[in-house]
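Minutes, project check-in
Item: structure for the 198-residue chain
Input as provided by the requester:
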Amino acid sequence: MGPSDWISTGFALVAMLVSGVTVFYTRVQVRHAEEQVEQARRELNFAVHDSAFNLMLRMDELFLEHPMLRPHFYQDVAPPTPAADPELHHRAFAMAEFCLDVLECVWERQDKYSDVDREAWREWIHDVFAGSPVLRSLYGERQAWFPVLTSLRESRVCTAASGHSFFTDPAAPATPAGSAVPAATAAAEAAAAELAPV
């Protein structure tokens, strides 16, 4: 073996060593990149949850600021007609629009939730609809504005014992504004008329 063979062998060994170091360094970089992607995914999921909770808390704040709205969203009480109480009527419909926007936004991110969280958010949405004729009425009027909620409704998935008929019964109407809410408010107007001084 001559000197040129030793030099060639030396260069080959150095090249192998450099290749080995490069492979090792590349693997370290790939592992680091995977960790960064996982961290970014966790941060995104946290941001999604945080945003959903903040929206829900904003709804709660509005109910604290305007407690007279709560029965119209949690106790299945229809709002008064514009003639009986214009401020409460319009405030209830404004709150219904805000709630529908929140529910749409919360459910639009459902693919980022864990299975347990997805089920909890879905049932919360069902409960809000079940307790609010004004929400169902506005949804019925403006269903096209809320494609994510419409998709949820069309899925007919519900794990609550009550079944939430609005979401599980295909025959359940969306309660357009011209039907159930005005009928309920007509009854409220009649009751108010009886109490009015003669």
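Outcome recorded: The helical segments are 3-65, 71-74, 86-108, 115-130, 133-141, 147-155, 165-168, 180-195.
No further action items on this chain.
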